[in-house]
Write a structure and sequence with these properties.
This protein is mainly α. The chain is about 45% helix and about 5% strand. The two termini are about 25 Å apart.
């Protein structure tokens, strides 16, 4: 079962940015992290207790802000910019490309 991710509770938690990069909301940063983790929009929606359409809006906003055309480009930018840390999946045995 997927855990719900809470919404930000303070103003300081509501935005994140990289020098000379776009400003992201806390929710966009969470969505970006889950994209890097390989989750689909429906999986992200379930994790965040949002609708898939809301997640799709966040993804489109992220792609626009970064000038990305694909989720892969978005993930690569996030990793290279240090917005998201690369870490092994908690249950790597179930991942299709896990060694």
């Amino acid at each position: 079962m997927l855990d719900a991710v809470p919404a930000p509770t303070s103003t300081s938690d509501r935005t994140a940015s990289v020098a000379d990069g776009p400003v992201l909301t806390a929710r966009e940063l969470v969505v970006l992290t889950l994209i890097v983790d390989g989750l689909t929009n429906p999986e992200i929606a379930e994790r965040l207790t949002n609708s898939p359409r809301t997640v799709q809006s966040h993804v489109k906003s992220l792609m626009r802000k970064f000038g990305a055309h694909t989720r892969t480009q978005l993930a690569v930018y996030a990793l290279r910019a240090g917005l998201v840390a690369l870490h092994p999946a908690a249950d790597s045995g179930s991942h299709p490309i896990a060694a």
